[in-house]
Write a structure and sequence with these properties.
Elements lengths: L7 H13 L10 H14 L3 H11 L4 H10 L6 H12 L22 E3 L23 E3 L1 H9 L5 E3 L2 E7 L2 H20 L11 H15 L11 E7 L6 E7 L1 H10 L5 H10 L1 E7 L6 E7 H6 L6 H10 L3 H4 L5 H10 L5 H20 L3 H6 L7 H19 L6 H8 L10 H18 L6 H8 L8
Antiparallel strand pairs: 1-2, 3-4, 4-5, 5-6, 7-8
Helix pairs in contact: 1-6, 1-7, 2-6, 9-14, 12-19, 15-19
Amino acid sequence: MLSYTGHPFLDVGLAVITVFSEKERPEYLTQDDLVKMADFIKENYYVPYLISYLHSTIIPNNRYFQKVNCEKQNKKVNFDELNQFYNTYLYGYLHTAREVNRKCVFFNKPAIALASKDHIPLLTGKDYPNFMANGQLGLAISPEAALCFQSLALGTLKCNGKALLIHSNDYDIVQDLAKIHLDEHRKLISLSSDEIIELHNPKTILLEHLTRIYRTNYNKIQKNNSSVTIYNFINYNTNADIEIYHLPMEQVKFLKRAVGAKYCDIWDKIVNKSLKVEKRKTKKSKTEYESRKRQIYEDMFDLPDNASKFIRTYFLRKSIKEDIELINWDITALLLEEILKMEKERIEIIKNFADKIAKYILKTENGKKIFKLFFNKNSYYKFKDSLISLLLKSTKDEGGLLFNFDEFTNIFEISEDWEKKDWSLSKDLIAIRLIEQLYENGWFSKNDNKEIIENEELEIEE
């Protein structure tokens, strides 16, 4: 019985075999399923684009490349060595003989070979014992593990000149991603393609994939503690390299809720507004294609460290005139709750504070000045003085306090366990709710107030 191990390269290969076999989990795989996967690899890894992709990115000088290269140069193919490779790395589980007297490091099964970078990406070469247990020349793997690593390429895509591999502690996500990538390879194989379209912007690709998965299987993906990691690697000889990008569970949970029915309309508009499309051409045929980058997806990987800038850029917006319909409190509150871990009580206090300011603006003749208070680039001390003046005037006008001491301290003097409290973030949050409320009440459409957004008077901090 096979099961996921937590090793990203092996798990993605195992996920490919699982979805290829149309099984719900790897524990249900049979020997026949393994044989069918091996047959598919043996038949299709000679498609031109896969030969190039495998050799230049995942497994250099692999047996598939060597066979094709010999045929191109009219050299004799050593079929004895090729068949030995097939019997070891594709069909080894059909044989009882084991030349390696060790246990597989991945599965509780007897090993069939000592693997090197020729079989598993980013290992050392076969003649180097560095970093291997007991100084052995390779990593002990079972036939089943060997097939997983041979299947790995079908669970990756080419991105930035490297292989894009995505792993998660939620294996529903791993399998859904494996299916997306496998389907893409099957399409290219059916066309006998001689080149693979190279993708770019791995962070954008991941979040586009997750959006697709959550919208298709919203009720299926139940885990709330799922995190996802991108491995963008190349295993080519001395140029081996890897870039790792981690998306924490807070961002994953936020995304899952953001693409749900309650928030999807506003979230999609905000995401699409950040889309940048670049025209590119494939290297061989010069076929033109589009490379997409959604900057909001890229910036989500830096949360919560960039929270103030993120909220100001995507939720408060730089151009209120153009984007006023994208300024939405609910999606902002979702981010505060899920990623910044702000208590719901404090979120509600900020919202109610802004609502009271909005109601007062709607009633008073001095509304523009009060509104601009939350956009001026003043120091905290000047901002506090302005709030005190507002409190005194509103008390005189209304005969009661517009806000009290507890509300002020909860909003401006408390942080979410950060090293430094960010009063300007609270000011921006109030501004978001203010704009939403005033817009809904038609305040900006009045003649005296049109100039606020028509002339772009507001100073949104960078």
